[in-house]
Specification:
mainly alpha, 163 residues
Length: 163
């Protein structure tokens, strides 16, 4: 990891780093499935969720085939993933979700950092390159409640280009 402290990253930045790592993991292992794409796409939306729309975004996970909440994955997805990667991928998806979920109904910023560290550890075990964290630093990351500001369309495009 570079010289950026996890504590200086907003929850949105941590969440976007985590989902970028998931996408890089899938790219590296040539794992393709619409359910994984839908999960990653929904997670990315957190970058622009207005406070009044947060509950709807959170509820949106329930309609996904892959939620990151420990629900069983569809059989076709389980069959599409090499057996030796399935458990790690399921853990990775859960850690990606928990990178922000641990703060949804509280302010456990330390847990958010630990979840991102778990994502980075899985990437390290599989030789998946982690994007440079300095690209995710925001000048007002501590507001509101450590979530940081909602990203502009341009910021989202720049961060998504890091996948």
């Amino acid at each position: 990891m570079d010289n950026i402290s996890m504590d200086t990253l907003s929850v949105i930045a941590r969440q976007c780093i985590a989902v970028t790592c998931l996408q890089r993991f899938c790219q590296q292992h040539v794992l393709q499935h619409p359910a994984l794409d839908a999960f990653a796409g929904h997670v990315w939306k957190v970058a622009q969720v207005a406070p009044g729309d947060f509950a709807a975004w959170e509820r949106g996970f329930a309609s996904l085939a892959v939620t990151g909440m420990g629900d069983p994955w569809p059989d076709d997805l389980r069959m599409a993933i090499p057996q030796q990667l399935l458990g790690e991928l399921e853990q990775l998806v859960q850690h990606v979700l928990e990178t922000s979920a641990c703060t949804w109904h509280g302010d456990d910023l330390a847990a958010s950092g630990r979840q991102l560290e778990a994502v980075l550890a899985i990437c390290a075990r599989h030789g998946v390159a982690v994007p440079p964290l300095e690209h995710y630093v925001q000048h007002d990351a501590a507001l509101p409640g450590g979530w940081g500001p909602v990203l502009t369309d341009g910021e989202v495009r720049r961060w998504q280009a890091l996948t």
